[in-house]
Amino acid sequence: MFQESVDRSHGSSKFDLFLFLILVAAFFGIGAVVLLLESSIHSTIPRYVFIALVLVCVYLVYRYRLIGYRYTVFFEEPKPVYDPRFDDMMIHEDYPYPVGTVVFERIVSAKGVILLTVDKSEIEKILKPGEEPSNASVDGATNNIACRKNAKAHCMYYRKDGKLNRLYFDPSNEFLGYLDRIMNTEESKEE
Question: What does the alpha-carbon distance between residue 97 and residue 102 come to, in Å, rounded to a whole number?
Fold first, then answer.
């Protein structure tokens, strides 16, 4: 199994620390200005503006940093590993899906909600950003779980319930390698 996550900011833990420090400094700095304004104009309007700004900042952090997507591909059976507690080879993972399944989830912080599961037999083609399909008329759903515009995202065409669907996503090269591996497994066994 291989799993990766994407979010709108494409940030790291260092970016999160920097963002936190900037937000704390801005909170206290703007708060001081608000207190000065309230005492000089004898009104509470700056306080309500400050509260609105804080709420907008909280929403933006939630929207662009905490919400993202997780892609999982099950490309091989779980392998046994040595467990010294039992002095034996054990399989510690039980996959909830068969090998050859790709799972797409929407995540908020670390909790995920499954949006779509696609079996390797349902995948028609995967296109790189900017590639146009030849004679592909989508009669099903089109979804974007890439955290970027469609033109800059990879596109997966898959067939579910007899309809051709399109999914825009933003995989790494490693994830694409595992996708290629599961899609070509049957072909290599047939030869």
Answer: 9
- How far, in Å, CA of 160 to CA of 50, rounded? 49
Map residue 89 onto helix, strand or coil. Answer: strand
Are 3 and 101 spatial neighbours (Cβ–Cβ below 8 Å)? no
Q: Maximum CA pair distance of the chain?
A: 83
Cβ proximity of 132 and 97 under 8 Å: no
Scored b (16 or more CB within 10 A) or e, 48-62 reads: eebeeeeeeeeeeee
> What pLDDT, on the 0 to 100 scale, is given for residue 8?
67
User: In which element (H, E) is residue 105 found?
Assistant: strand 101-108
Sequence-distant (6+) residues with CB within 8 A of 112 are 70, 105, 106
What is residue 129's predicted lDDT score, i.e. its pLDDT? 92
Please give the structure tokens belonging to residue 86: 């039992």
pLDDT value at position 188?
Answer: 39
Nearest CA to 103 out of 88, 85, 115, 86 is that of: 115
Q: Which residues of the chain have pLDDT under 70?
A: 8-12, 134-136, 186-191
